[in-house]
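Need tokens for this chain, all 196 residues.
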Amino acid sequence: PIVSTHERLVARHRRQNGKTRWKLARQLLAVRDQRVHDGAVLVAEDAPVRVADRTVIMENAVVRAWPQLPVELGRDVMIGPGANVNGAQIDDHAFVAAGATIFPAAHIGERAIVRTNGVVHINSELPPGRVVPEGWTAIGRPAEVVPPGQDERMLFSLYGMNFTKAVFGESRAEVGLKNYLDLFDGHRTDRPVTLD
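Here are the structure tokens for all 196 residues:
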């Protein structure tokens, strides 16, 4: 179904096979010649999602802009199946593999690679050409790439990562589920829309 939200239009596009589902919002800005595969979801939640030429977003990937955290996908970028990109910038020719997670305010440099189930953390910057191996985590500016386990937890603590501050501009003490309820409250009035 196609859904309208207040002043913006959110659409779920379905191909004939009924599998493709990607949300289009007023702030979803695609240039041309991209490929968005079945099940991929692009959400412009009060910030734009910009997709440059020849970028591919594979099935079941989620690309989400958050308030004041737009998504910028450069040219010739590949977002793999089941990957999550949240309020981040990904430069030209970068590759984000299946199941990888790119957290808010992260920056992936040109020709950088985040392999399967790799993570680039909040406010982290993966320099051009760098690689995050399978299951490893990039933390900091510039990012230090660490294996899973105790080292990752220690660095996460040292860098003072704070998801709620990065996304909502508040400290953890001020948060809770209320921020999410408030953020998504605008969707209470979503309703099907018929197009001619």
